Model the fold of this input.
Amino acid sequence: ESAISGRLPISLPPFHALGDGLRRDAVPEVPRLGRVSGQELEIGIRPQPGGVPPPDTGIVPAPDPDVLWPGALPAVDPVAAPGQELVISSLEVDPATVGMDPGAVEALDSLILGALAEGASPGAALAVGRHGKLVRLRGYGRLDWGPHAPPATPESIWDLASVTKVSATTTAAMVLAESGRLDLDAPVVTYLPWWGAGDPRKGSVTARQLLLHRAGLPPFRPFYAQMEGREAFKEAIGNLPLDYAPGDSTVYSDIGLMTVAFMVEELTGTELDAFLRDRVWGPLGMRDTDFRPDPALLPLIAPTEVDTVFRFTHVHGAVHDENAYAMGGVAGHAGLFSSARDLAVLAQTLLDGGAAAACTGEAGSGVPCSAPRPGPVRIAAPTSVELFTRRHDGASSRALGWDTPAPGASAGDYLSARAFGHTGFTGTSIWVDPELDLFVVLLTSRTNPTRANTRHIPLRRAVHDAAARAITDFPVGARTW
Done:
């Protein structure tokens, strides 16, 4: 309703020059999207049915569908208390329609808001789906601690940290293995001859062992302290000796998934991010998912740690993981950014055996849908999804790239033994349960401002337990070991 104008009194290189700005004349009659205590609340301009604006408002008709499309704008909860912001997607359905207790699902909001109030994170995003429908797709709190920070929404973008390993690298390996281009039992040096330089035992390591974290690699090396750039990292990893004989032990390793990404790039002739945009994220309509997010998206991105050791800044819009940052932002173990609504699409695709139905994003449809899909999409066969997500053997909880429930782990106690998932250091997680036909995506920025914060750990378990126990049409009990 008010005119907007403003010009920069300084330059902001490399994005804006001194004097850049905008001017917008007043629009007297703006469509409203909600009410709070009888007062209208403006949170955006929604396109009218058929793309026709109301008369004499000056609003341009037929807005760009990549900017606004039906179902893309969230609703604002009118009863949220100050400091307890809650943003609700219009896609949600009544939990009772998918065999879940509405009151028990509603308790998820209290769990998360309570944890935020105790400092687990400045904000969070949650997606819970069952029987192909979303019962929760919400943002809680804010993206940063300041009172004027943007609210967290289903479209907010989070640094996924090690969730990159499954939502990017493992998915790419699954696609290539299904097509026959990647032999999981061939030695890594078949694809990357340079990889075995540092230890003759590396000549027998396979892609399967990398994905199972059984390759003999150390968990981590602070390469970033001595080098930068992909070629420098390749040389260092190639020259790295093993810590133990391949296959002897399961030791979670960032370096193994870095190597899998190098294999993907060698086989496809392109970078990991480009392959996934073309083969997975683009076809599925995952519009918020990518490495190295555009700086224009900063208002949508949750900051992570105040780095007092390496970069000496409040990390925002750049990958938190130091090795991924030193590599240039695209890595097999970390570096991916995404939203709750996008990861809901990926989770449902995996529940549906690698396929996603067409979707329009229609309000109340419940179908996970970040951008309209005009037709069905398949990224993998059901047999491939089964192969990669089922626990490999009794020696550990690991599947190929994915993890499965274990005592005391983030999955909680009520997801079934068939569930698979992964967590990220920044406070992110995704769990998918084919037996319960359920998925839960929980995104936080628990490292903001410090990685010493561990309040997200009990929150994860409580959210997964509450979601599973809300099921009413299937017997759910605590797992027995």
